[in-house]
Amino acid sequence: EEQEEDVLRELRLFLRNITERLSLDRRFKAFTKPVDIEEVPDYLMVIKKPMDLSTLLTNIDQHKYVTVGEFMADADFIWKNALEYNPDSDPMDRNIRHRACALKDTVRAIIRDELDEDFERVCEEIRESR
Length: 130
Ligand SMILES: COC(=O)N1C[C@@H]2C[C@@H]3O[C@]2(Cc2nccnc23)C1
Description:
The protein is mainly alpha-helical. It is 69% helix and 0% strand.
């Protein structure tokens, strides 16, 4: 009903705000757009579910997420993919893995600090009712 749409509208505002703040952080520049398959032709052979901050934003606008948990599952692919595709000891790989870990910790810290547990519970009730 209308109250549910009000909750989901507030969820989308919350998720857009997080995603935009991450996109402005210079540490996360490599995560703002999909990895360029022309530049990295083997990427899709290694990474089965590419994800990036611009795709998260598109998904939000397409009402893909009904809970913060669903959003976090996609956000986690961004840093997990980076750890998987860039495993070597060379400085470039180490640098992107460091940024991937910073992204993981930053997402979790924002959600711990800014998400009301009761709000997420209401979103989960809506999800289960659909
Ligand atoms: C999230 O970003 C990444 O996982 N990567 C991995 C790719 C390998 C390396 O860095 C990336 C882009 C790139 N382009 C050209 C040549 N080499 C590279 C970004």
